[in-house]
Amino acid sequence: MLQNLSQEVHRVTRADPTLPWTGTIGLAIAVGIAYFVAAQLGLALLAKPDGVAVFWPAAGVSSGVLIALGRDARLPVAGGVMIATVIANLTGDRNVWSATVFALCNAGEAVLTAWLIERYFGSPFRLDRLRNVLGLLAAAVVATAVSGIGGTMAFKLFHSPTAPLWTIWGDWFASDAVGIITVAPLMIGFAKALRKPPPPNEIIEGIVALVVLAVINAITVFLPPESWEPALPPALLFPFLLWIAARCQPVFAAAAVFIVSLTIVWTITFGIGHFGDTAIPIGARILEAQTAILGIALEAYVLAALFAGAASPRGRARGERGAVAGSADGGGGDGLPMGSSQRPVATQRERCADPGL
Q1: What pLDDT score does 336 carry?
Q2: Residue 160: CB atoms within 10 Å
């Protein structure tokens, strides 16, 4: 369904800037369902005493879909996010007024994130360059910081929490930022993979690597508390993240991050393993969980961007130019003397043929 909606959006917007009403409604429903499911996961773990979710993967769903589909999907995505937010909050302990404000904040956050990405990095956006990875991180920070102000005011006005305003804003900011950083790349990569599927052998290898990583990650979170250190998960998972980044498209690295994040949130929610150890204060466990998720996400995305950049035509062209220049400087590695006038001409031709310059 998502593939058909993605193809419809891109096909129609090339000829007409407005989506047909069927595509608009279908996209809004699909986004709304995905956002509601992700919101339920976030609402399963609320911080006390402010009642803010400590992990909000729904923010990554909305931002990632909007970044992948472009500006013409803003209306259906924002509409689906707002409806799903209101329903998710009303089924909990929120009232209609706070649910409405939260809906506006969540939709505005996704639109602002996508706008910043398109404004400074263009469209389509891919996580195949280190600059783009850092750009997504910066956009998530800015958008969640802004939306957190509105969310904090709504909490204070409609729910009268005992926690300070700074604490409420900090929890909102951290949960949404982590949600965008961990889930949005999966949406972006998935949309790209639907348009241009990877080779079958790469898909098989990627799935095998993800299964192995999931098993190792499960073993890690179940380690005895005395053997657990904050730097342990990134260290143990690094070889498998390196394998996935070197052999597969960035979407598989994003899937690895999602698996690790989901496992950590699941353990802290149900009191399993280190993150579920009740002997450790909940605030410390939440901070450790968010730090571990963020560290593993950045590790995976940086590796994937470096390998994807090196494998791209631009990266290969630069590598070939470097090899030619190195052999020429070494005194005739290309069959020409160091003083030959043909070497600068060849270099200039290579520059003209390189689309990246």
Answers
A1: 43
A2: 7
- For residue 327, the one-letter residue type is S
Per-residue model confidence as pLDDT tens digits over 222-256 = 776 655 555 566 678 889 999 999 999 999 999 99
CB of 32 closer than 8 Å to CB of 81 = yes
The Cα 81–Cα 77 span in angstroms is 6
d(CA 328, CA 252) in angstroms, rounded, equals 39
Q: By the 8 A CB rule, do 182 and 258 touch?
A: yes
Q: Which two tokens stand for residue 15?
A: 């000829």
Q: Which helix (H) or strand (E) holds 312?
A: none
Domain 1-197 belongs to what topology? Arp2/3 complex 21 kDa subunit ARPC3 (1.10.1760)
Query: Coil, helix or strand for 318?
Result: helix
Please return the burial class of 228, using the count of CB atoms within 10 Å of its CB with bins 0-12, 13-18 and 19+. Answer: middle
Q: Which helix (H) or strand (E) holds 263?
A: helix 250-270
Domain spans in the chain, listed from the N-terminal domain onward: 1-197, 198-321+344-357
CA distance 251 to 224: 32
